[in-house]
């Protein structure tokens, strides 16, 4: 099994018709925690329990608390898990292109069958090296035959409704916002603003870079206490990380010599890649951390390495209690 399949099985807490499934709570934990203790066997769900879950999902209103509100009341298949991970780590342009390819008549909506095709295409791309064993292949196919929470949410209880592109965009934005809210609360320790040193901790939290200690030393020496970053500034930086591949390409064009880049070049590359700007507060924090030799420039190669670790999440995380405390916020 692939690492992602193993991770899915580790966090999936329920079984239905012999297949493991995540609940919405399991999914959020899977992107926030390194591992989860499964002291008990996975819960076996009955048809009646699943029908009740689907009824609730079909009536649930959009919000950035969707997964927290559903909690343990829902089913997420393995291919849906990969699909949701892609939403958290990639820019929306790829989804827009795929959606339009399936929307042959140009009416900006798709039916359930077309959506499943989109989901499976994106899920396969998420697996860098798709497993070749028949067991995993058949498991994904069986999972697709079950009507899940995500499908009931998008297409109604019977699956006959159409999914509008604007509603799908809203879902993607809400999911990203929900994870961002939880991470912000986790690292700000529940406060409305995040200290710059907390932001630095969030940035470096998943990295195993050789220069990690140098980054931490820069944070301690160069970032004065008492200065804070707002949730809006934090969200803007998260949007930037989702466009990190476009940023890397832009930097390569701007900076052919592969030398360290200054703040003006960095800011220009961010604007070109995302169409947005980062606050001076965030830019200053990033440069003070990643400027290893004090020349007001940063090595974008090392920075990109840290950012890619940051985007993937789930490798090294806070204790479970910290995440659980954010659940009701």
Report what the structure shows:
By secondary structure, this protein is mainly alpha-helical. It folds into 2 domains: 3-124 and 147-177, no CATH class; 191-312, no CATH class. It is built from 18 helices and 9 strands. The protein has a 3-stranded mixed β-sheet. The chain has a two-stranded antiparallel sheet with strand order 4-5. A two-stranded antiparallel sheet has the order 6-7. Strand 1 and strand 2 form a beta hairpin. It is globular and about 65 Å long. The protein starts with a helix and ends with a helix. Keywords: Calcium, Membrane, Metal-binding, Mitochondrion, Mitochondrion inner membrane, Repeat, Transit peptide. Residues 278-313 form the EF-hand domain. One of its GO terms (molecular function) is calcium ion binding.
Key phrases:
329 residues, mainly alpha, 2 domains, three-stranded mixed beta sheet, two-stranded antiparallel sheet, 6% strand, globular
């Amino acid at each position: 099994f692939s690492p992602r399949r193993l991770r899915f099985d580790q966090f999936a807490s329920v079984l239905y018709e012999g297949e493991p499934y995540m609940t919405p709570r399991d999914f959020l934990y899977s992107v926030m925690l390194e591992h989860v203790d499964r002291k008990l066997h996975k819960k076996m769900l009955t048809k009646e329990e699943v029908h009740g879950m689907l009824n609730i999902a079909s009536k649930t209103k959009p919000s950035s608390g969707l997964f927290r509100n559903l909690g343990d009341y829902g089913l997420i298949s393995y291919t849906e898990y990969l699909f949701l991970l892609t939403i958290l780590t990639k820019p929306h342009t790829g989804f827009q292109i795929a959606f339009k390819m399936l929307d042959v008549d140009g009416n900006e909506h798709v039916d359930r069958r077309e959506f499943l095709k989109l989901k499976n295409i994106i899920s396969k791309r998420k697996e860098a090296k798709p497993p070749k064993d028949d067991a995993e292949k058949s498991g994904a196919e069986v999972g697709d035959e079950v009507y899940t929470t995500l499908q009931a949410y998008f297409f109604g209880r019977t699956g006959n409704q159409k999914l509008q592109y604007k509603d799908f965009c809203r879902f993607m934005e809400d999911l990203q916002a929900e994870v961002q809210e939880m991470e912000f609360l986790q690292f700000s320790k529940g406060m409305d603003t995040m200290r710059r040193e907390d932001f630095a901790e969030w940035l470096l939290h998943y990295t195993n870079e050789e220069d990690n200690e140098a980054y931490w030393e820069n944070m301690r020496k160069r970032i004065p206490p008492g200065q804070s970053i707002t949730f809006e500034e934090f969200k803007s930086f998260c949007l930037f990380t989702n466009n990190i591949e476009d940023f890397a390409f832009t930097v390569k064009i701007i900076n052919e010599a592969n030398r360290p880049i200054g703040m003006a070049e960095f800011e220009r590359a961010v604007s070109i890649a995302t169409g947005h700007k980062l606050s001076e507060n965030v830019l200053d924090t990033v440069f003070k951390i990643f400027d290893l030799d004090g020349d007001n420039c940063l090595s974008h190669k090392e920075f990109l390495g840290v950012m890619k670790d940051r985007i993937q999440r789930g490798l090294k995380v806070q204790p479970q209690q910290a995440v659980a405390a954010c659940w009701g916020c």
